[in-house]
Write a structure and sequence with these properties.
The chain is mainly β. The chain has no helices and ten strands.
């Protein structure tokens, strides 16, 4: 069974940083592209970033230059380093296998102004 467990969220002031982690299990992690997405209060799911199985990176314009996605195939984990956080980054963040809906509970990120 595919399982994805996000962690690392919290409350941070604008301009601060957080690093999210997503521990994967139940599938061959290293052969899949992975995605981070977020859902802000009252809004739909927004794509944030992808990392391919080969390490190719893509970012939404809203986070480009501030967020960095990475993966550790030895640990079956994908990360999202978030710097220069803004109040509009406040959301529940989810990871997923690219092209699939989130399966985990997500991790809450709240950025205060």
């Amino acid at each position: 069974e595919v399982q994805l467990a996000e962690s690392g969220g919290g409350l941070v002031q604008a301009g601060g940083s957080l690093k999210l982690s997503c521990a994967a299990s139940g599938f061959n992690f290293k052969v899949f592209d992975m995605t981070w997405a977020r859902r802000a209060p009252g809004k739909g799911l927004e794509w944030v970033s992808d990392i391919s199985r080969n390490g190719e990176l893509r970012y939404a314009d809203s986070v480009k230059g501030r967020f960095t996605i990475s993966r550790d195939n030895a640990k079956d984990t994908v990360y999202l380093q978030m710097n220069h956080l803004k109040p509009e980054d406040t959301a529940v963040y989810y990871c997923s296998i690219r092209g699939n809906p989130p399966r985990g509970q997500g991790t809450q990120v709240t950025v205060s102004s």
